[in-house]
Amino acid sequence: MNGLLIREDDTVKANSVKEKILDDDWWDKVSYILSFTEPIYDMIRIYKKEKLPLSARSIFYDVVHQVLVSQWTKNNTPLHCLAHSLNPRYYSDAWLLEDSKRLPPHRDGEISQEKQTCFRRLFPNDDEHDRVLEEYALFSMKVGPFEDLICITKMDTMEPKSWWANFGAQTPLLQTLAFKLLGQPSSSSCAERNWSTYAFIHSLRRNRLTTSRAQDLVYIHNNLRLLSRAPNDGVNMWDVGGDAFDSMEDVGFLEFADLSLDEPELESDLLVNV
C-alpha cells in the first residue's frame, strides 16, 4: 500500500516537472530572472577573484557604478521627463494605485524641474510659455476640458497618441508636443548608429581629421546610405553594412554609456522634423 502511494506521489511530481518543462511562459520567467541576476553573479565572481576582504572597496565596483550612473543620466533628460509628463496613463488612478509610492508627474519634483527646463527651451516666447503652462495645469489637474468622465477613464486604457487626438484639441500646444514626443520610440538607437558611423570615419588611423570635416563626412555617409535604398544601383556600394553596421572599435564602453540626448539642438530638430 505504501509503495503504491509513493509511486502515485512520484507520478504527480513527474507530471508537475513535465508541465514546467513544456511551459513556454515558465521559461520566459526563468530567462527574465537570469537576465538581471547573471550580471550580479558575474560581479560577485570578479569581486571574489580580487581576493579582497569584505570590508575593502573594489575598484571594479567604481567602474560598474559609473556605467550605471551614465546609463541613468542618458535616459533621464528634460525631453524624456516631458514625454513622461505628457503620458496620460501616469495620471490615472489605476496606475497610481498599483504602488503606494507612485506619484503623478506633476507631483514629482525631479520630473517637474526637468519638464520646466524643456518648456523654457521649446517656448522661448513669453506668451507661448505662459500658454503652455496654463494648458499643462489643466491637463495635470484634470480640470476644464479634461474633467469629462470618459476622458479620465480612458487615460489608463487608451494609447497615448489616440488619447490626445480625442481629448486634447482645446490645449493645442500640449497636443502638438504629445503627437511628436509620444510617437517617438524610447530608444537611442538612431544616435548610437550615428556614433558608430563617426567611429568608422574618425578612427585611430584617421585621427587628424578636424571636427567639422568629420561631421561633414558623417553627414555624407548617412545620406549616401539612405540614397542606396532607392532603386538606383549606382549608389548601392555606399551602403556599408546597412543598419547592421556597428563599428565601435575605437570607442570605450564608458564613453559609449555617456552618450546623451540632453542636447537643446537635438531636441529642437527632433520636434521640428517629426
Describe the structure in your own words.
- The protein is mainly alpha-helical and 274 residues long.
- It has 3 domains: 2-54, no CATH class; 78-181, no CATH class; 189-258, no CATH class.
- Helix content is 65%, strand content 0%.
- The protein contains 14 helices and no strands.
- It has helices spanning 2-22, 24-49, 59-74, 78-85, 93-96, 109-122, 126-141, 149-157, 160-167, 172-181, 189-201, 211-228, 253-257, 264-273.
- α4 crosses α6 (109-122) and α11 packs across α12.
- The longest helix has 26 residues, at 24-49.
- The chain is extended.
- 12% of the residues are buried.
- Mean pLDDT is 76; it is low at 1-5 and 235-261.
Summary tags:
274 residues, single chain, 14 helices, disordered N terminus, 0% strand
